[in-house]
What we know:
Blueprint lengths: L4 H9 L16 E3 L2 E4 L9 H12 L3 E10 L4 E8 L6 E5 L2 E5 L11 H8 L7 E4 L8 H8 L3 E6 L2 H13 L6 E5 L2 H4 L7 E4 L9 H7 L5 E10 L5 H13 L2 E15 L2 E12 L1
Parallel strand pairs: 2-3, 7-8, 7-10, 8-9, 10-11
Antiparallel strand pairs: 1-2, 3-4, 5-6, 11-13, 12-13
Helix pairs in contact: 1-2, 3-4
Bound molecules: S-adenosylmethionine.
S-adenosylmethionine binds next to strand 8.
Amino acid sequence: MVETPFNNIKKLLSKTIPSELFDKIPDKWEKVGDVGIIKLPSNLENYSEIIGKNYAEILQCKTILNDVGGITGTYREPKTKIIFGPNNTETIHKENGIRFKLDPQKIMFSSGNMDERIRMATISNENETVVDLFAGIGYFTLPLAVHSKPKKIFACEINPVAYDYLCGNIVLNNVTNIVEPLKGDNKEVAPKNVANRVILGYFNDTYKFLGTAFECLINHTGIIHYHDKFPDDVVPNKPLKNIEEIAKKYKCEVELLKYKHVKSYAPGISHYVFDIGIDEK
Ligand SMILES: C[S@@+](CC[C@H](N)C(=O)[O-])C[C@H]1O[C@@H](n2cnc3c(N)ncnc32)[C@H](O)[C@@H]1O
């Protein structure tokens, strides 16, 4: 058998897990800092501790969490249960020269968004002001601040736990001179008429926040990065229509600069990002 982490996990579990359940052992996981997250099917729950112990050993994690409820709500909170290791799961995840401090029991971190975090790192420049309407712990704000060094980033976050990590991560990554964190609903706290670029990194009917994004732009002119999940067969027409409707209200023209499939969400439904140029008519 080829030496892969999954094959090594299976080898360790071969004497414990009954053969009829062996193919249910999860072959995917998230590793956030030194915390591992797996999704155990219910028929393996009786074996959760030994499974957790072996994942911890092979993935070099202190704690293994079982994803029991996905990521839900306005705050995009994960629902997990510890199956192995200590309860203190605060950790530092390193990626692309950035240090993201977070607790994966309270805050999501998606490996599926990594390419987009890396793309955002180089998308801006020193002449721009950026508004991140859904900053979280700094998923896009931090790579952008560290690698693109714009004049200023206003980072809005409504979840108090995520906001505290955002503030800590701004210090941890030495970007206090660039990033101004703003606590609260972006509809209330986002600054108006200041930005060349606005990021909407969210997917819960994100179109409801497009008006706020237009208002952040200087003279309703600039670029927005509009995320949401859509049935694959309506892309890019449906999201573009959402933008065009708002643009009409602001008497603006829109241009689809680029769109990108970020990750699959469910059969036939994916998370996309649309880069849209906006200009007053
Ligand atoms: C978790 S992030 C999305 C994931 C991120 N794009 C990534 O790359 O992994 C979305 C954040 O938006 C925040 N949020 C939701 N509604 C908001 C609002 N109205 N104003 C400000 N922040 C909001 C949530 O609390 C959450 O932290």
